[in-house]
Design goal:
This protein has about 200 residues and is of the alpha/beta class. Helices cover about 25% and strands about 30% of the residues. It has one domain: 4-Layer Sandwich (Metallo-beta-lactamase, Chain A). The strands form three sheets. Strands 1-2-3-4-5-6 form a six-stranded mixed beta sheet, covered by helices on one side.
Amino acid sequence: MIIKTFVAGFLENNMYLVLDETSKKGVLIDATENLPEISEAANGYDIEYIFLTHGHFDHIMGLNDLKKALNAKAVINHNDLIVSDNINEFTRMFNQPDSIPPKYEFYVKDGDKIMVGNLNFKVIATPGHTEGGVCYLIDDKLFSGDTLFRGSVGRTDLFGGDFKKLSDSIKNKLFKLDDKIKVYSGHGPTTTIGQEKMSNLI
């Protein structure tokens, strides 16, 4: 498994290209901007899906273009359609240009497993930052979106946010995972479940 990280947007979002060398298949996680480097890194691979951790504008602004560039299908939790469909309510809050709300081919829910080549992703629903927020777990890697950061957690003051739900998602789902699992967040550096259990004040 190869993981390539791309940082884009004024909020410095992380996008992750996860590739399986054997099957030459892969996925992109989150879609802030259609950076040419993503298509270059994906050259020779079949990128089947773009997994969205949630529907906030800064994670989906590049989705329409990336779907075309990678010929990939977009995947989100159905509960975040209301956030995604109203993308421009959020872009205007942050003085960003309007975007065309993206369309999705598939919807995921808690416990779903998705095979992409030899990559076996498990979906973990983690409502709180948004109602439809999810994390994607593969082997000892967790893509946490804006649920969990190194030393911090996602904000809950926007539409759909709920701190009690976020705390429950982290303490009763993510912190039940193995301490050694590496966490790839939607913003900022990587961390581990063990490190956050010891130092995160959630």
